[in-house]
């Protein structure tokens, strides 16, 4: 492992309060690395929608972890991320770790723009996170005991966000992952029904799983007052990403970290023990 000295500048972690960002921040702090939080409420704020915040946040930054909110596949994301790359490189940033989405054409466009620069980069192209069941929009339906999703969703090899964070920190702190694109999955592909069933068994709860027509699912999201941009993003991902293209499993975690990827069952056992889903572990 070839360590990189970070005394030359700060590490900017965008999305520092998100699923991956907060895990990366925690790990970097444990390493006493010089971190700058990238969020709208940070001491030096960063806002994707306010370009005037970019340069101050990038001042003195040598390395940046890039995650785009709400998703790099949304309309306009490519143009925004491309401008950010240019601004960061002009400000002296030399290294980028990009969180990308597996199976998303728009995300791959953002990858290619970064790869065409003279900067150092590592691309983490991730499957759906297992943590979507505990830290995102699946949490409340699971708590309520009734999960319904559109018909026709293919099996997905859910990846543990802790594995992604470990890979990001390795890329930030060493030169071993320079100009490498990792296509990241968990060790097995599961249907959403199987995933929910494993959570039900671990918690000892009855959690029903029902599929509905995509149009009915969209209508329910609107009824639940989910913001329209998120409704469109969710429907896009269900229709265009969970069509089977992402079902094959890779060994990216093993190659990057020298250990197997964490399994969905391990994630479920760990998460159920917190009581967040209710049931036997409360």
Care to describe what's here?
This protein has a single domain, classed as NAD(P)-binding Rossmann-like Domain (Rossmann fold), CATH 3.40.50. The chain has 282 residues and is of the alpha/beta class. It contains eleven helices and eight strands. The strands form two sheets. It has a six-stranded parallel beta sheet with strand order 2-1-3-4-5-7, sandwiched between helices. It has a two-stranded parallel ribbon with strand order 6-8. It has helices at residues 21-30, 54-58, 77-90, 105-115, 139-144, 161-173, 192-203, 214-223, 228-240, 252-257, 264-272, and strands spanning 10-14, 35-38, 61-66, 95-101, 120-126, 146-150, 180-184, 208-212.
Spans of at least 5 consecutive residues whose pLDDT stays below 50 are none
Count of folded domains: 1
**Total count of helical runs of at least 4 residues:** 11
Distance between the termini: 42 Å
What is the second-level CATH architecture? 3-Layer(aba) Sandwich
Question: What coarse outline follows from CA principal-axis ratios?
Answer: globular
Which range does the strand content fall in? 15-25%
Order of helices and strands: EHEHEHEHEHEHEHEHHHH
**CATH class descriptor:** Alpha Beta
User: Could you describe the largest sheet, including whether it forms a barrel?
Assistant: 6 strands, parallel
User: How is the CATH topology named?
Assistant: Rossmann fold
The averaged pLDDT comes out at: 93
How big is the Rg?
Answer: 19 Å
